[in-house]
Here is the input.
Amino acid sequence: MSLAIPRARGSFSKCEAFPYDSAPKYLVFDRAANFDGSVVDTIKSFGIEPKRTTFQSPWQNGVAERFVGSCRRDLLDHVIVVNERHLKRLMNEYVCYYHCDRTHLGLAKQTPAGRQASSGTTVNANVVSMPRLGGLHHRYDLAA
Here is the structure.
């Protein structure tokens, strides 16, 4: 998934690109030809500092590539996206799922948001299933 920025001035606002005041301080992108001067100017007009990866250093895109791959495997391979609004809603839900519910091996099976694992379980404890991403994934907790 790539960020397509229209070339016409005034046709793309910061609020459309980054809703809910979520604009990053930096935007890292590679040296592909589609990221020309107009894209860099647009990014700067949003108050975001563009950072290009080093020439012939594809390993610098590893984090972004891993997130895109996870998003594709966890979500986009299983749904049919109807329109742009639908995709934005799905992506907002996926980012919440990715940070709050999905465990990561690199974090010792913890979540980036730091969700604490339930403790003090008993043999006959009830488990509650909470659907995520429209039931595509689930989060399981102990019943109160």
